[in-house]
Amino acid sequence: MARRCDICGKGPMFGHTISHAHNVSKRVFYPNVHKIRIIEDGKVVRKKVCTKCIKAGKVQKA
Question: What element of type H or E holds 60?
């Protein structure tokens, strides 16, 4: 399953986990994506949408 928002295209971001001893290892930051039913072109469809898009009102829930 692609962890990408269907509205804004936000996807995984990459960074580092840094311990107290400054040991660095790679990690992934995933967006908070939910499967919701939205109204698109007058039809009800299921899309994966990040919570920022839901809060901003970019989608209309069905």
Answer: none
